[in-house]
Structures are given as structure tokens and as C-alpha cells.
Amino acid sequence: MKNLLRITLFTALAFILTSCQLQTKSGKGFKFADYENEATEQQAEIGSEAELKSNLASDSLLIQEITNKHTPSQILVRKGYVASYNKDTKCPNWVAWHLTAEHADGTVKRPRNAFHADEDVPEPRAEWYDYKRTGWARGHICPAGDNKWDEEAMRESFLMTNIVPQNQNLNDGDWAEIEKKCRKWAKEFGDIYIVGGPLPYEKPWETISDNKIVVPRAMFKVVLCLNGDKPKAIGFVYKNIAQNNPKSHYANTLKEVERLSGIKFFPTLPKKVRKEIDNSYNLSDWGIKD
Questions:
Q1: For a Cys staple, 97 with which of 23, 81, 86, 161, CB 3.0–4.6 Å?
Q2: At a CB cut-off of 8 Å and minimum separation 6, what does 146 contact?
Q3: In Å, how far are 9, 18, 44, 62, 268 from 33, measured between CA atoms?
């Protein structure tokens, strides 16, 4: 994969790979080794913010995804994010990225004819024109607004492997609002880690176009912050319908989003930290009043 050497070590934290492990190695950038079949427990007893980040971004980091072993997953490493692509749904399983205060703003504009097919995945695949006259918006998982810091990152955010069919009202409204809120958190806290993705319908799936792109029943987003007095995490689940609700309406625990998505988020965190953030969240910690 052409972008392996360009991804930063911190970006690696959130990335969760298919029902097995990937070993990370240092160099000029970030490398993924061959898949391994056996799981290995990550053992760490650390507490400070600096130690947590050092452990999570270490060269020997093992990153796991716990999901249905039959779920197709092709790992796509981009400048601003990493995605797990599903050839059956023609959508990402998840997209993960590290959003810093510096990356939460920028001057790079959306390119002309921005949406484009991802030639790194096999055909049939999603094409930009598949969404025309379907009534569905091209919904970003990793938003363009998080990639204004770099032209290539911006261009790659419009790859169709980072896109799902999304209700237009949701895309323009509550989903856009949580994207903006994440950028605000990155600026306020210094940096955050984000994983997002679709929750498909049970089969038979609803699809669009001859390429049979699956329409999700819902979208999820989880956010982790390691700065401040203690680590904190929060999840959000949005049904893929027109709606207008306060952010608190969509808030969920990390554990609940894991149950719905089948994904284990941030598995390299020490068990004592996971225990703190798994089953509860405090809206006031995130400045959510409604």
C-alpha cells in the first residue's frame, strides 16, 4: 500500500484490524506486517497521559479488531485516516483517525469533481455516479473538514471507500454537527482519537445502483481523549433517517457501540483504563448540555 510510510505513529492508535493482529514497526513512518492468526494479550499497567500515549503509539503495538471473522476487510492506509473496506457492502467497516488541534483547521479547499472511485479495491466497487438520482447523500465517515490541513489528505477523504449512502437531512444536519463538535474537542483538548462507520441492515440488505452499495441502517462514531485529569470516551449512534435531536439523544457508552458494531475499540488501552471508560460517559466532560 503506497501510503504506509507516510502515516504517523499516533494515527495508529485507533486502528483496529480484522479479527487478528497487525504488528507495527517503526521507520520513517508506520508499517503493517503480515496478519497473524493467534491473539496475544496486551499487558500494560500505566497511568499517566504521557505513558498512555507512549504505550499506545509504541513500535511494538498490537492492534486488534474483534468482529465477525467472516466480515471482509481490506485495510486502506491514507494520509489522514485508515479504513477497513468491505467488498460485500462496498462501504467501509470502519474508518479511524487521530485528530489534532493543528489538523482541526486549515485552508485547503474541496477539489473540483471531488468524489472518486478507489482504485485500490477490486471491481465492482462504488463509483461517484452510483449515488445520482438515488435520493441518498454521499456521506463521509472521516469528514473533509478534518482534512483541510493537507491537499492529499483532503483529496483522499473523497475516495468512495470513505463514503456511505446517508440520509441527506442527517448528512447536512446532526451528523455534520457532531463532526464540527469533534473539531472543537480537538482544539479544546489538544487531540482526540475517532473511529466511525456504518451499521448495515440485517440481510437482505437495501442497496443502490448496479454496484449494490449497501445502505446502512445507522452510523456510529466513538471518540477517545487521553488528555486532562483522566481518559474519557463517548460513543454516538445515528439512525440513517431524517431527524433533528440534541447530541445527548445519540450518546452511548463505548461498550454499547462495540455491541452494535462488533468492533473492539482501542484494545491496547490498559484494562484499568478500559474499565473506567467502557460502561459510562459524562456529558459534562464533553461540554454537551442538551
A1: 81
A2: 80, 97, 99, 103, 104, 157, 179, 182, 183
A3: 14, 13, 22, 10, 17
CA distance 141 to 66: 20
- Residue positions annotated with a catalytic role: 140
pTM (predicted TM-score): 0.81
Quick: pLDDT tens for 152-195. 999 999 999 999 999 999 999 999 999 999 999 999 999 999 99
Distance between CA 77 and CA 189 in Å, rounded? 26
Angle, CA 100 vertex, CA 61 and CA 216 arms, to 5°: 80
d(CA 263, CA 116): 27
Kindly list the strands in the beta sheet with 232-239, ordered across the sheet, starting from the edge strand earlier in the chain: 74-77, 82-86, 91-100, 191-200, 216-225, 232-239, 251-252
Encode pLDDT of 215-259 as tens digits. Answer: 999 999 999 999 988 999 999 999 999 999 999 999 999 999 999
**Secondary structure of residue 100 in the 3-state scheme:** strand
Distance of alpha carbon 15 from its chain centroid, rounded? 8
